[in-house]
Design goal:
There is one protein chain. This protein is mostly beta strands and 849 residues long. The chain folds into 6 domains: 146 residues, Immunoglobulin-like (Sandwich); 121 residues, Immunoglobulin-like (Sandwich); 123 residues, Immunoglobulin-like, CATH 2.60.40; 127 residues, Immunoglobulin-like; 125 residues, Immunoglobulin-like (Sandwich), CATH 2.60.40.1240; 137 residues, Immunoglobulin-like (Sandwich). Helix content is 0%, strand content 54%. The protein has 1 helix and 66 strands. The strands form 15 sheets. Strands 48, 49, 50, 51, 52, 53, 54, 55, 56 and 60 form a 10-stranded mixed sheet that branches. Strands 25-35-34-30-31-33-28-27-26 form a 9-stranded mixed sheet, with no helix packed on it. Strands 3-4-5-11-9 form a 5-stranded antiparallel sheet, with no helix packed on it. The longest helix is centred in the C-terminal third of the chain and has 4 residues. The chain starts with 19 loop residues before the first strand and ends in a 5-residue tail after the last strand. Keywords: Signal.
Amino acid sequence: MYRRTNTTIAIALGTLLLVPSLTDPILAATPTKATAKPVVKPTTTSTIPPIALTAKSYVSMKEAQILATDKGNVFTYTISVFNRDARELQWINYWTKLKSKAGNNYTAKLVSTDKEKTKIAPQSSENFTFHAIVGPTTKLSDLMVEFIQWDFSAANYEKRRGIFKFPVNYSVTTPINKTKVVLANNTKLNTAVEKMSVSKDGNYFAVDITYALENIGYRNLTLPAYELSLRTNTGVLYPVQTEELKDLSIQPRDKKRVHLKASVPIKNSTKNLQLVVTQTDETDKITLPVASYWLPEPTTANLFAEPNQQRAFVAGTTTLTTKVKKLFITQTDRNQSVSVYFDMLNSGTNAYELPAYEYILQTRNGLQYPLTAANATEKMVVNPADHKELQLNANISKTVDLAGASLLLKSAKNDKGVNFVIAGYKLPQSSQNEVAINTELAYEADTRKYGFTLNALQRLPLGNEDVVAAEFTITNHDTRPLSVPTLSAHYILDGVKLDETKTKVIKLDQIVEIGPKDSAKVIVHTKIPYSSVGSNVKVALFEKENEEAKTGKLIGQFKSSGFTEIPVVAKGQTLTTETIGKRANYTVVDTKRYAGNTNDLIYMNLMVENLEKRSVELNKMTGFLRLANNEMLPISLSDYKTQITPNGKVLISAWANVPKTLQQSPTLILANNVAGTGEGAVDALIQANGFAADLTSAPTLNTSLKDMTIEPYKFSLSKFNTYLSVTNMAADGIKLDFIYDLEKKSEYEGVAESHQLLFELEDQGFDKFTFSKKVALGKPDDTGTTPGGNANETYLEVGKGLTKTIVLNDPEILNKIQKYEEIKINIYDVYQNHKSLVASKMLRWYTVE
């Protein structure tokens, strides 16, 4: 027999019988036959008498329960050994044996954390926890624990000190509104479930439990890796989100409240629920119970915040205040492109790294679609009092009704692939995020205020495709300088979304920030088949966190009914470009048509003036001659490679071969090149402008041979004398003496192309024989060449009142000239083997005039 002490030694623990299985989206459990009956809250709690060891010391049953695990049903029991004597109690002298009332024996093992305990000091106690695998239908009342003392004088060396038996109504699940003391890392925690709320989430109940933990020990405690489950009244177990418990630190006498969340299929009842806390023994790889609680009657909560209403929740050691700011829905030929702007404010005092939250769009019919956080980074931190606005995107079939849709915010998935609903938000009406060309769209993000305007949408030929280039102006509407946003984009052509990987964005201005009320320009370009119509074009613009980001936050869509006309500068007018770093004036100086044998050549001189405050290189350009029917003829451009000084001017040339039958005046189209891959490759053509050319009226023919101009030269000829050239007493051609003035305009610091003069003498006899000679403009330079050719050719050098004799060789001269009376001189401008008549005058043989 033993003596009953005054110490309260009986503690009850509820039986937990369940068999879990994984399903999506939550962890479900199918009860075994032994647990198929509904769980009923006990009305009484039975105590188990202690077992005496000495007159003062004893052992009591502290906790016992059966828990279904992956390894089967595990029976776990904890005994408390109380040493009330004056000397140490040797634990190695004692052990427990587990049996069933039917006579079955089970192997009970001591948990790894208790294996080092060998003694119980005087006037102290120690807890020892055992676990054993039992049968699938075994109930707690079927088992008994025999406490033995090793005695070599007894049979089998065992002396039974007593048996612990479990009554049918035995239960130690913590009652409602009561606390439970838990030993965590040798520190006592006073724990309790304070309240529970339930809201509906489609086909699930969203359960929110407030769980309180108070450190009543004497040292700081970091909570162990507990696992929590929600047990229904049918014995089915569902996982509970434990993010707030992870690495939770609690100071002595401090109290923490955490919000636990779970999802339960709506077919289950939310009455008579239990919260079950377990812990894994990493050495034995077995799940051990920690505590269980009866949950109070749930209060009904509205999961979904109304449009524009905030919803706050605890996240880690801080609080996030969240809100859906706006909704954009745009249509393509097949899908609805949905963008939800979701704002998170850190209302706490600690920085918080956002976990991998899951965002779900749920229709009022219960259809769910995953949303992608376009501008989220891998480790996005929200600092205290800071906002993070996420753009959540999805493409959904046009057949789906999105009226009355909602946003679900779900926790990051745990190691079992399970997550839980944190909050819900009713989505507002779709905002207007589509504007027409030349209309500014306001855009605000992270307290930055911009305006975006589509200025032009051009289409130009490039090889077998056409380039589509949209020019945007970004205006800073803030009171401080702002960075130039990093952008991405895609096109929607006649309702069809084009491949966004082939759409590129170019920053035109060489700046890193935009001042208040200032602006910057960007180009968005892609390629389309030349046969595409493009009567309805949209450009969707996005802001990215950085260049490496694959997706971005939608700024808006910009639409145009077709492509914009290329602006044309009137004859004699100047085009000024305002791209920072490339500001310049472009003026067509002259336009000529040169005759050829099989076709003609249209030629233009273009003056370029550098308006920057430093030397710059000329933009690489591509040119076309646009005819009246919008046909584009390719045109060649001279390549000027030298930098142009500030306010410096250079002369570049543009020319193209045209049919002799062409009667109209074409328009010169010049576009800036976007470099492609490879030497000289062109990826796109942007910022095209046109220059009017008048070729319908013939140029005025100079008959005085005074003040003639071939850019960059101006020259006059006089005092002609024409006579036969005689060599070795034989006539072999015509000699032409004359006096000339040649001036090179000083306003140009460089000329990309040079021309030649062609002197042609036409005898006025019956056959009108002609004799010609090419003459270069300009003296040979240091390389030994003239601008028009090589050092051996005849040239005119710059100067005034200079005398020149040229020989027009023809050994048949005497057979061609019958009368030495009148002869006409024609002066041609020669370029690319084509010539244009500049001046003409009648002369007389052997007469100075």
